[in-house]
Amino acid sequence: MRSPYFSILMLFLTAVFHAQTPGPQSESSLRLKAKKIHESVITIDTHNDIDVNNFTNEVNYTQNLNTQVNLPKMEAGGLDVSWLIVYTGQGELNKEGYQSAYQNAMDKFDAIDRLVKKYAPESIELARNSAEVKRIHAAGKKVAMIGVENAYSVGLNLQNIENFHKRGARYMSLAHNGHSQFSDSHTGEADGVWLYNGLSELGEKAVAEMNRVGIMIDISHPSKEANIQTIKLSKAPVIASHSSARALCDVSRNLDDELLQLIKTNGGVVQTVALDQYINLEKYNANNQASQELYKKIAEELEIDFLDRDEISKLTGDALETAYTNHDKILKVAATRKTDINTRFPLVNVRDFVDHIDYLVAKMGIDHVGISSDFDGGGGIEGWEDASETFNVTFELVRRGYSEKDIAKLWGLNLLRVLDKVEAVAQKIQKAE
Predict the structure, then answer these.
(1) pTM above the 0.85 mark?
(2) What are the residue ranges of CATH 3.20.20.140 in the chain?
(3) Does domain 26-279+348-432 have CATH number 3.90.550.10?
(4) pLDDT of residue 143 exceeding 50
(5) CB of 235 within 8 A of CB of 215?
(6) Residues 6+ apart with CB under 8 A from 252
(7) How many other CB atoms sit within 10 Å of the CB of residue 367?
(8) Residue 328, C-beta contacts closer than 8 angstroms, at least 6 positions apart
(9) Are the CB atoms for 142 and 81 separated by under 8 Å?
(10) CA-closest candidate to residue 169, choices 215, 130, 123
């Protein structure tokens, strides 16, 4: 028979154990923890589109414009680094198309230069490598970086890849929505039309040149076959600057498990994108269908055309850029007038977004996942509708049990690791020349 003293001792130890074991954390304590983490890590959003009309003496990012990203919104939300995108819509594969695309790219490079050198040099600085990101952040400034969306603007002259690098570009995609001179696009899935069944011969040379000069290869928009070929050819890790998990949302812009494994093996990173229809298509479609009449009414009030995303995807060049701009204008007005619709048909939200982060981390490991918004290019979800709400992503990560170390990796360290590796590979190639 056990001694009564043994029973008393066990009761005492049980009481001590329960006193030392924390119970469920309150919402306020979680928020406080998340705030501390959010302030301590470097938050990097790898995909923010720009409009050159917002980079003038009269209208620029020092003001709280009706854009999802600008300096006041970055400050309010604790977003430290914004990759500003030199985007060019896909046009004709001819001399005139290439010239127009190149000029469009130069206009956007120039716009970013004006922001960091003329309009707000005391508030934001352009970074070209991870050391500069850390230095600028430590100085209390916001950081701008540059990505090129669609190598169509390179034309047929591969020297332009190095020219873009000199202007500050540190990643570039070989295609967007529509096949380029370098690569098939994911859009070929819709009609079964392919130009190269992957990369063109020029595209293979572009991969080698991007490795040589030190530009990360972005695989968010090319076709799956093009991406497989790119990963096999590349001597450096690749990134998907704004893509999510196809297993959770079956759209051609997302990455299936085979690609996720290849990216992991390659040492790359997938920047999960907060774009509603790439996160939860069922929820997006239900809300969107219920909102169509409102969108059309707002378009009439604004005296602009309303096109749905399927119609927009068929456009090219300037028409495509105009359609994206009009679409964003309509959605921003609609956001203030959709309360009843959103109650009946809930919006895609931060929880849905972090579901994708969870999935990617489970499939690839914490070292291969990052975060992006696609703000001012179609992105934005309930809870992270613009840069001022960036904290909400960190809060949800903390709520799910991610550590500060893991959150730092997701918010930017993984991306900077890849950037460092790409730079090291370029230096090795150049040294061997």
Answers:
(1) yes
(2) 26-279+348-432
(3) no
(4) yes
(5) no
(6) 186, 187, 189, 190
(7) 16
(8) 376, 378
(9) yes
(10) 215
Q: Which amino acid is at 329?
A: K
- CA pair distance 195, 199, nearest whole angstrom: 9
Q: Which two tokens stand for residue 75?
A: 């400050």
Residue with tokens 């790898």: 46
Q: What is the pLDDT of residue 315?
A: 77
pLDDT in tens, 31-81: 999 999 999 999 999 999 999 999 999 999 999 999 999 999 999 999 999
What are 161-191's pLDDT values in tens digits?
999 999 999 999 999 999 999 999 999 999 9
User: Per the structure block, which two tokens stand in for 411?
Assistant: 């918010």
Contact 112, 144 (CB under 8 A): yes
The total of other beta-carbon atoms located within 10 Å of residue 363's CB is 18
Q: Which DSSP state fits 374?
A: -
pLDDT at 10 exceeding the cut of 80: no
Residue among 147, 121, 118, 148 at smallest CA distance from 136: 121
Better-predicted residue by pLDDT, 257 or 10: 257
3 state SS for 396-413: HHHHCCCCHHHHHHHHHH
Give yes or no for a contact between 358 and 272, defined as CB atoms under 8 angstroms apart: no
The torsion angles phi and psi of 48, rounded to 5 degrees, stand at: -130, 115
| H or E element, residue 393 | helix 391-399
Question: Cα separation of 370 and 83, whole Å?
Answer: 13
* Cα–Cα distance, 148 to 212 (Å, whole number): 17
Residues 15 and 342: beta-carbon distance below 8 Å:
no
Q: Of 87, 313, 289, which Cα lies nearest the Cα of 189?
A: 313
Question: Whose structure tokens read 């001819």?
Answer: 94
